[in-house]
Write a structure and sequence with these properties.
By secondary structure, this protein is mostly helical. It has one domain. Helix content is 69%, strand content 0%. Helix 1 runs antiparallel to helix 4, helix 2 runs antiparallel to helix 3 and helix 4 runs antiparallel to helix 5. The chain is globular, with a radius of gyration of 15 Å. The relative contact order is 0.14.
């Protein structure tokens, strides 16, 4: 007997795509040389493995020590909102407003 393989629903796949787009939007606001940073390499690895919350974490870690535009925080807020990480979404909204 073969084990049943469960596939994610189309709605879940669409949600993941939205979150990935938000994270990529934030990443796109970082300078080209950010790719040399370990946390950005980790971000990409997490993104490649659909570990979206961890990918978001790595972008936040990068921003703790580098200047980022307010729109970076808006993109993270959108990703966090889609992941239902409400406390983080509120914190990112505050960062975007500064």
């Amino acid at each position: 007997m073969r084990p049943e393989i469960l596939m994610p629903s189309p709605d879940l796949i669409h949600l993941w795509q939205q979150i990935i787009a938000d994270l990529q939007r934030a990443r796109g606001m970082l300078p080209v040389e950010a790719v040399e940073e370990g946390v950005i390499r980790e971000y990409q690895e997490f993104l490649d493995h659909n570990e979206l919350e961890l990918a978001c974490d790595m972008l936040e870690v990068y921003a703790e020590t580098h200047a980022v535009p307010p729109t970076f925080w808006t993109a993270l807020r959108d990703a966090a909102t889609n992941m239902r990480l409400n406390d983080r979404a509120a914190r990112y909204a505050e960062m975007a407003a500064q």
